[in-house]
Every structure is written in C-alpha cells, then in structure tokens.
C-alpha cells in the first residue's frame, strides 16, 4: 500500500495545523498575567503616590470623607510593608538554616532510609493547605503565648517555606559534580570543610535562587496570617505583637466598603514585589550557573 | 628506599567479588610508577585505595596492608593520609568559586592551616613554577581557575596537590581529557617533578607509560599480572598476557 501525494499533503497540513495550535495555546498562557497587570495598573495607579509607601492604612472614616469630597483616599500601606518585612524576615531566619542543612543531608545520604522518609514527608508538607498550617501555628504559638503575633505568622510561613528550601538545596547540590567533593577530600579536608568551603559556595547561585523563589511564593500567603499575625493598624516592629502584612491589608480593604478602592494599588504593589523577586532569581540563576 | 608498600591489597565493591585482588608491590622514592591495563581492570580502584578515596562510598571494602613510610595507611587518620598522598584526577577540577591563587592554597585553607603572607606568596610561586604555570598566570592570579584552558587547569590542579608538599602524588589518568600538546607538557613536567616527589600514575596509554615511567605495573581483571622496570616490561615481558596487551592483541 503506497502513500498517494494527496495523503502526504494532508499529513503535512495536519502537522502544520498542530504546530500552530501548540503555538497559539502557548501564547494564550501569557494573557492572564498581562490582563491582571493591566487591570491592576488601570485601577490602582491613582493611589500609587508617595504617601502610599510612607503612611499607614487610613481609617474607614478618613476614606469615606475623602471619597465624599472626590479626592484620593489618604494614607498608604506602610504598616503592611513593614509587617511583611518583619514576618518574612523571621520566617527566613527560621526556615533557611534548617532547610539548607536538611537539603545537604538529603543530597549527601541519598540512599539512606531516613533520607527517603524525610523526602516523602517534605513532599507531604508541601501539599498541606496553607489554612491548615495557620491553624497549626495558632495552636502551637498563638495559644501558648496568649495572643496573636508576628512570631506566630512567621512560624506558619516558615513551615510553608521549608519544603521549598529543602528541595531546592537538595537539587542544587545534586547538580554539583562529584569530582568537586573528591578534589576537596583528596586535599585532606574534613567532610565538614568540604561542604562548607567548597560545595555550598559552588552551589550559592542555586541556593539563593531557591530562597528567593520560596520567599516570593509565601509572600502572598494570607490565610495562615489571619490566624496568627492577625493584623495591626499601626507600624509594628515587635515580634510578640499582632502585625499586619500586605496580603492581610488587601483582605481588610476588601471587607470595608469605604476602603475597597485600595485593594487595586495594594495588589499591584504585592504583585510587583513578587515579580521583581522572580526576575532577580532568574538573573542570579543565570549568572551563577553551575558549569 | 621504599616509600609505599602494598601487601595483599584487595578492594571489593560487592562482598565476595574483588575488583582488586591480592596486589602486592613496593614503590621506591623519586620514581614514576605507571599502572597500565585495559578498562575495568582495577587500575583506578587500586590507586584510590592508597589515599582511601573509597571511603566516600559505603559499600567499598579495602583489606590488606598499604604502608606509607612503614605506617599502615588503613589505620591512619584518612585526612592525614590524603595530605601526605596528593591526588590528581582524570578531569581537571579546579574549585570554581576560587581564584587561581586561592586554588593553589586550597589545601591549606581546607585544612584550617593559617599562613603568613610571605609564606603564602612563596608556596603559590613555587607550586606554580613547579608545574610551569607561573609565567602564564602570574598577572591573572585573581581570576577564577575555570577561565584557564584544560591543560592549564590540570597543571593548576597538580600545583594545588603539590602545594601541600605531599610525599606521594597519585595521578588517575591525568592527561586523558587533554590534547596532545598539553599532554606532552604534563609528561615533561612529571619527569621534572620526579626529582622531588614520588609519582604513581594510572594510564590508559601504553606509550605514555613507556615515555615517562621507571616502573610499570600491568593489571588485568583485578590481578597484578606483572610489575617490573618499564624497560624490562616493554622489551621482555614475563607474562604472556602482558605481551599480548602490549602488542595490541587485546585491550
């Protein structure tokens, strides 16, 4: 049975059609991001002024008065920015040493049973819904401390960060050639020194990228913070007090009819921060690529 | 004088199956000894037993005696062994985060040995002069080692090993990833280094063994078939398998 010219032509056509289909579908994936950014800029740019970054969130009353006189809502999201910094900073301090050390363990003792168990549990933790993590942090930290706090929020976020940091550390270290480790040991170095002075510096780019991506992932978390950090109207740097954060502010603005116009600018800010982190992560990953 | 002595050395990756089988040999000071043989005959395995590199992998077992200046390596602290027996690998592996200067001194840094500035400068210069790299890199000391060519990188790795002033230099096919010109330079270098160091080199290349070594070992399927002066082995091999390998019947 031979192939006729028309049949070949049809196959060619089919090939081309499929190719175009694939391209179009890939193109469509860009739309949500562009629409989201467009929408946020369109509705939020008016609020994007100096006081937006330097003042705390306005009260419902102030916002109502401003709206009635048709002027821009006063105030900003400073308490959210500082709160996010405080909570994320503490979460980083908790999650990164543990995550990197666990990642080193997983990559060094690949075959061991214990490593297998940890790897499995890490995957499970990654799948826990964030609200559940919030409840856990509530039970572990808020209850014993008799109050909501930035600390409780950072514990919840640290738990969510851990699996991301562990896995990215493990994967980065696995990418390093064995010859590097052997070269270090062959010079008479101790195992600890080989890890601290050779492997970790060589993996720096990958580790840093992993951390940035983990931070950008948890930066927008809201649910766990509702149960832990709660929120605050003023700037708070005290780890033991309730604290606001950007996503928490967005939630509060949404719930107040007078403040609802502020959700666009706050969302825009949050999105821009996350996008920036992602872009930096990409740059770092390119610059420090493992040869 | 005997620097290194191997007594009934066996290495196994799986219990009961020896990759290196009952190897006994003695190596004198200031000589180059080549270990030859076809792929998978245990050359590298034997070499890596000497500085205990196998301990990185839990399933490898080394038995017998390996004496370095009369002391059993297998009962020493592995870090001490590796400081006294430097190693150069198949592929050049300078540390990518360190400059050329830091690479040469890496052994000291990793062992937590602090040196004065003069001492550092002196070690770097002698080590790099030893490997004939000094003139090529003396103005680019602070560049990363990975910017060098393959041959230069390998010489840097030799300098890194020499910087610790080892008694023994173990080389695992150090020129197999290099072009003929770089290979030639390294071979010339080894002949010079012989004056100060003792070298054991694993090589896939019979001609290389003939060119540079004083003594040769021929290994086959984990056994040390023959060990003699290189001259003797290449002119009048004592074993039929050696003769066949050297004349290209197999391998």
Task: Provide a descriptive summary of the structure in words.
The complex is a heterodimer of chains A (291) and B (251). Chain A has 291 residues and is mainly alpha-helical. Chain A starts with a helix and ends with a helix. Chain A has helices at residues 5-28, 30-44, 50-54, 60-68, 78-108, 113-127, 130-145, 150-175, 178-186, 191-202, 204-219, 223-226, 246-254, 262-287. In chain A, α2 (30-44) packs across α14 (262-287), α5 packs parallel to α8 (150-175) and α7 (130-145) packs across α8 (150-175). Helix content of chain A is 75%, strand content 0%. In chain B, α5 (117-130) packs across α7 (150-163) and α7 runs parallel beside α8 (180-193). Chain B is globular and about 55 Å long. The longest helix of chain B is centred in the middle third of the chain and has 14 residues, at 117-130. Chain B is α/β, with parallel strands linked by helices and 251 residues long. In chain B, the strands form 2 sheets. In chain B, strands 6-7-8-3-9-10 form a 6-stranded mixed beta sheet, sandwiched between helices. A 4-stranded antiparallel beta sheet of chain B has the order 2-1-4-5. Chain B has one domain (2-246): P-loop containing nucleotide triphosphate hydrolases (Rossmann fold, 3-Layer(aba) Sandwich). Chain A binds chain B through residues 177, 179-190, 193-194, 197-198, 201-202, 204, 290-291, and chain B through 51, 53, 56, 79-83, 86-87, 89, 91, 93, 95-97, 106-107, 109-112, 146, 157, 160-161, 164.
Number of strands of chain A: 0
Q: What share of residues are in beta strands of chain A?
A: under 5%
**First-residue to last-residue Cα separation of chain A:** 52 Å
CATH topology of chain A: MetI-like fold
Q: Count the helices of chain A. How many?
A: 14
Low-confidence stretches of chain A: none
CATH architecture of chain B: 3-Layer(aba) Sandwich
């Amino acid at each position: 049975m031979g192939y006729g010219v028309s049949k070949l032509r049809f196959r060619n056509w089919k090939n081309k059609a499929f190719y175009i289909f694939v391209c179009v579908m890939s193109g469509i994936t860009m739309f949500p991001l562009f629409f989201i950014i467009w929408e946020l800029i369109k509705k939020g740019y008016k609020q994007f002024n100096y006081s937006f970054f330097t003042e705390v969130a306005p009260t419902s009353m102030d916002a109502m008065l401003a709206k009635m006189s048709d002027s821009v809502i006063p105030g900003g999201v400073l308490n959210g920015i500082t709160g996010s910094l405080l909570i994320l900073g503490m979460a980083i301090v908790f999650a990164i040493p543990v995550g990197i050390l666990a990642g080193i363990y997983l990559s060094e003792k690949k075959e061991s049973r214990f490593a297998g168990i940890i790897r499995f549990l890490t995957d499970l933790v990654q799948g826990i819904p964030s609200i559940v993590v919030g409840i856990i942090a509530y039970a572990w930290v808020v209850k014993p401390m008799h109050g909501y706090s930035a600390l409780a929020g950072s514990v919840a976020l640290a738990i969510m960060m851990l699996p991301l940091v562990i896995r990215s550390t493990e994967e980065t270290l696995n990418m390093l050639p064995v010859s590097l480790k052997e070269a270090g040991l062959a010079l008479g170095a101790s195992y600890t020194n080989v890890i601290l002075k050779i492997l970790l510096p060589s993996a720096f780019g990958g580790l840093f990228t992993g951390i940035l991506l983990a931070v950008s992932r948890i930066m927008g978390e809201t649910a766990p913070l509702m149960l832990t950090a709660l929120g605050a109207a003023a700037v708070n740097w005290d780890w033991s007090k309730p604290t606001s954060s950007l996503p928490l502010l967005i939630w509060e603005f949404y719930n107040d009819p007078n403040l609802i116009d502020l959700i666009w600018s706050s969302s825009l800010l949050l999105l821009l921060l996350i996008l920036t982190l992602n872009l930096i992560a990409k740059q770092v990953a390119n610059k420090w690529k493992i040869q | 004088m005997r620097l290194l002595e191997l007594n009934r050395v066996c290495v196994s990756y799986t219990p009961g199956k020896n990759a290196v089988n009952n190897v006994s040999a003695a190596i004198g000071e200031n000589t180059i000894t080549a270990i030859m043989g076809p792929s998978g005959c245990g050359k590298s395995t034997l070499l890596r037993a000497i500085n205990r590199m196998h301990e990185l992998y839990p399933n490898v077992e080394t038995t017998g005696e390996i004496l370095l200046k009369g002391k059993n390596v297998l009962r020493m602290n592995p870090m001490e062994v590796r400081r006294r027996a430097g190693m150069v690998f198949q592929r050049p592996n300078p540390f990518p985060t360190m400059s050329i200067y830091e690479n040469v001194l890496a052994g000291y840094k990793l062992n937590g040995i602090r040196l004065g500035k003069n001492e550092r400068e002196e070690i770097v210069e002698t080590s790099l002069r030893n490997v004939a790299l000094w003139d090529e890199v003396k103005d680019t000391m602070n560049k990363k080692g990975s910017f060098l060519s393959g041959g230069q990188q390998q010489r840097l790795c030799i300098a890194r090993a020499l910087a610790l002033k080892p008694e023994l230099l173990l080389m695992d096919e150090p020129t197999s990833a290099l072009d003929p010109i770089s290979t030639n330079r390294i071979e010339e270098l080894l002949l010079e280094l012989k004056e100060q160091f003792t070298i054991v080199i694993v090589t896939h290349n019979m001609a290389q063994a003939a060119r540079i070594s004083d003594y040769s070992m021929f290994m086959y399927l984990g056994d040390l078939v023959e060990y003699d002066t290189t001259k003797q082995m290449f002119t009048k091999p004592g074993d039929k398998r050696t003769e066949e390998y050297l004349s290209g019947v197999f391998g």
